Amino acid sequence: MGKLEDTVSEFLAEASKSDPIAVSLCQQDVFVKALFQALEDTSLHATYLEPICEHLFRFCRSDTEELQRFSSYFIPTALALYLRLSRHPAARAIDLSHLEVYLLAAYNIETCDPEGKEIVHSFTVPALHKPSIYHESMIPAASAALTENALSRLEQGLKDSRVVIGPFQEAVRISRDNVHCISALLMRVYNANISYMPGVSREATLRGAQKVISQRSPRIELSSEYLLEVLHCAYFSMFNGQYVLGNETVSLVRSRARQNLLAEVCLVANAMRQSLLDSKDCAKATQQPMGIRITVNSSFKNLTKNVLTNASFRTRKLSEESTELRSPFIHNEGNATGVKRVQWGVKQMPGQSCPRAQVDSGQRWASLLATETWSENRK
Predict the structure, then answer these.
(1) For residues 329 and 340, what is the distance between their CA atoms, to the nearest angstrom?
(2) Are the beta carbons of 78 and 53 closer than 8 angstroms?
(3) What CA–CA distance (Å, rounded) separates 151 from 138?
(4) CA gap 344, 356 in Å, rounded
(5) Residue 355 belongs to what domain range?
(6) Domain assignment present for 290
(7) Under the phi-then-psi rule, with left for phi > 0, alpha for psi from -120 to 50, and beta for the rest, what region is 320?
(8) How far is CA 68 from the centre of its chain?
(9) What digits encode the pLDDT tens for the residues 94-148?
(10) Residues 85 and 182 in one domain
(11) Which residue positions does the secretion signal occupy (predicted)?
């Protein structure tokens, strides 16, 4: 018995004792990697496939959140393994009942809540005529008036952009009729929590998806929903340390979509490849996280003010006892440049004298700038 077999046997023996011990074992990377290797190695299926699936099933139905999350690490790998072995003639001798029970348990949990009600997920996709963090509005800001036509398009856009997922029916077995629905939902649940998944889980998910997509004899029929979820996982992995593996997966999915004429998958795969053209050199030689360079070009025109008015400057406040209102007056002085010089004075009210106001040099320069701008605009 090799080192891998010893590690898997130790995990299976210790995890059966109690949930706290199982939680402590699930937090050790050595056992996590060993379980993935045991599921991917077909020579170990006869010995370890059944007990591993039994433990994953128990963790999936457990009330402990750590065990439930640990069980979700292996859902895509188990799904890819089931799709391959159930269609391959050479693997018909392997008992897949325990693998099927584990997948059905993970699927049925997502169909109903603890109270027995059907789970329905709904969200709204940003419409093109409304700006968001992903795009700018096609309607210019100057013409965005609340007309009857604009309001009707706004209401119509909100209706069209609402997406509802579910409800799903419970399943007692995996058949040709529900295999696409089950596989798409399981991958969607995995991607919804992909930020919590370790790197070894994402790598195993992509390797399993590549084997399912590239299998030739017999060829496995795959739905658009499943391939879109695989693209989701590959795109996230490329930005979190698995660029090479994720890029290979995107290429395989794109080729499969072109062969089967899957328009939605081709559209998403081509968009992903196009968005990565500028950043593919970031992770060519390393497995470091990469990113996309985004240039934000605002469609709103910059507001320019050609004429500076008196309201643009704050004059010095007079004393509270004075009721005089300040106003600028312009007069010519015999200077060499012939520029009109602005001096600040006090507007004379009826029955009052007109003392000169004290102004600083900043106000004089601001007034001069206003006069020059006004003169240029008159020309």
Answers:
(1) 11
(2) yes
(3) 15
(4) 8
(5) 310-378
(6) no
(7) alpha
(8) 24
(9) 778 889 999 999 998 888 877 778 888 787 776 666 666 766 665 555 455 667 7
(10) yes
(11) none
